[in-house]
Design brief:
It contains 4 helices and 27 strands. The protein is mainly beta. Keywords: Signal.
């Protein structure tokens, strides 16, 4: 995504490890990843409780992977939630960058758009987003982002090195300050050296930075040691600023562009007590958007499990990050598009996908219009005119016997609100002679909003191939599929 495009988005940041660290000037060894995952207060049994981690310096720790969040971070004005939670990466060799966590945002007026999640935060790409974050030995960086304008976009460097959107060094240099080049592009599959757009990143440590909620109420201001990160577009025509703290992880985001006096009045209420005009590298700039996430609210039901499921349907995932973006998927992620053509365009393709079965032929297509087929986000569609219909999926060599998770992400763009279409995911195992050894079926209730469905399957001894496929259960409805996954 270009810097200009990102300036229109709500900033998202994420990742993290356990523990606490402070800057060298205060006598303890630094760990820059300590600024990226929010903390929780704990009781005498080390259980996370609803409380502000700023208020419990002697009884707090980092949120752990898989642990429910006891609070959400809300921005000033109460417009949307943003949380920084850790995840386990099943593949530490993930393009040379280990995934550490996720930074989310969800608009608070959109929590009830999917009836499977009553008053609970859930992934809806049209009304929210996230960043996947990771760290190599040298750098902490964004591995990719998802936003309502362009959906999922992986960030690559010129030699197909994932994680080109650098934040700061993964060393004590992060707290000393500095700058470096940060060239990136969104090549969907990055199979060769690619051309990237120029950007520059600057970072520095800011002790006791004030995060103001209400200028008239000093008790609501949080003064926190922070890592400040600024990304400049080529020519310094625009800038994005991110603030990280140990207590809250990603704590503030700002977008700036060239010019003076461009800050809208409503933004000054949403981001009070700020500097709205400044000069960077000889260019006058104005703040044109920002968020500060320091107001804490209790989730509906007392806690939120980012890797959980709907309380009404356990097959529907709350936040399906791991199978799609952590290198654990055994299937081809066609939703990343391709092939990439240097200095050209790309087209959505169907590599490794095919149609099988004895039913009626399917009609194939692409989802038209943003955000579904842009910047590497490709969604193919299938439509069955009559039932039963053929399937649409992938066949792979059987992985080692054992327990696996499988699923798909899809929606029905032509459905009216409140209507449903039916489909199922079918996992079929065959031996070397083509005999079916086992079949697992997962029914799906598809709506006009994106959902991810997940089930469990045991790969049996003697299986030589496994097929994972989507089968329409309703005639005449278009099903848009953005991902199919099988992982351990």
């Amino acid at each position: 995504m270009t810097m200009g495009a990102r300036a229109t988005l709500i900033g998202l940041l994420a990742l993290g490890l356990s523990g606490c660290a402070v800057d060298p000037a205060r006598g303890q060894s630094p760990d820059p990843t300590e600024f990226l995952i929010q903390m929780v207060c704990v009781d005498a049994s080390d259980q996370a409780i609803f409380a502000d981690p700023v208020s419990c310096p002697d009884s707090r720790r980092k949120l752990r992977p898989g642990e429910p969040l006891p609070y959400h971070k809300l921005d000033v004005g109460g417009y949307h939630v943003s949380d920084s939670f850790p995840v386990e990466d099943p593949d530490p060799s993930n393009f040379g960058a280990r995934t550490l966590g996720v930074q989310t945002y969800f608009f608070t007026d959109a929590w009830d758009l999917d009836p499977a999640f009553p008053r609970q935060v859930h992934l809806d790409p049209a009304r929210g987003g996230y960043n996947i974050m990771g760290a190599s030995e040298d750098w902490v960086a964004f591995l990719g982002t998802s936003d309502p304008g362009s959906y999922w976009q992986p960030w690559w460097r010129p030699d197909c090195d994932l994680g080109g959107w650098r934040l700061f060094p993964n060393s004590e240099r992060a707290l000393r300050g500095g700058d470096d080049a940060s060239p990136t592009t969104f090549a969907p599959n990055c199979e060769q050296r690619i051309r990237t757009s120029a950007a520059r990143v600057e970072w520095r440590f800011v002790p006791d930075h004030p995060y103001v909620v209400d200028p008239a109420d000093e008790d609501r201001t949080r003064r926190l040691d922070s890592l400040l990160v600024r990304h400049f577009a080529s020519g310094y025509g625009s800038m994005e600023t991110n603030w990280f703290t140990r207590e809250y992880g990603a704590t503030r985001w700002e977008a700036w562009r060239a010019g003076e006096g461009l800050t809208p009045e409503f933004l000054k209420a949403r981001c009070p007590a700020s500097t709205y005009d400044a000069v960077f590298h000889g260019r006058a700039m104005s703040m044109v958007d920002c968020r500060t996430w320091t107001t804490l609210i209790r989730p509906e039901g007392g806690s939120w499990e980012p890797d959980g499921v709907s309380a009404l349907d356990p097959t529907i995932r709350t936040f399906p990050v791991d199978p799609l973006y952590l290198s654990g998927n055994l299937l081809f992620n066609s939703h990343l598009g391709g092939p990439y053509v240097p200095e050209g365009d790309y087209a959505c393709e169907t590599r490794a996908w095919d149609s099988e079965g004895e039913g009626a032929e399917l009609t194939f297509g692409d989802v038209t219009g943003p955000p579904w087929n842009a910047n590497g986000a490709c969604m193919r569609t299938i439509r069955a005119e009559t039932l039963p219909a053929r399937d649409w999926g992938q066949t792979i060599d059987a992985p080692p016997p054992g327990d696996y998770r499988f699923g798909a992400s899809l929606f029905a763009p032509g459905l009216a609100r409140g209507e449903e279409a039916s489909a199922e995911i079918v996992v079929t195992q065959r031996d070397g002679e083509g005999r079916v050894l086992a079949t697992e079926r997962l029914p799906m209730r598809v709506i006009d909003r994106y959902r991810t469905f997940e089930g469990r399957v045991r790969v049996v001894e003697g299986a030589s191939e496994v097929r994972v496929a989507v089968v329409p259960g309703s005639s005449g409805e278009v099903l848009a599929i953005t991902g199919l996954f099988l992982f351990r």
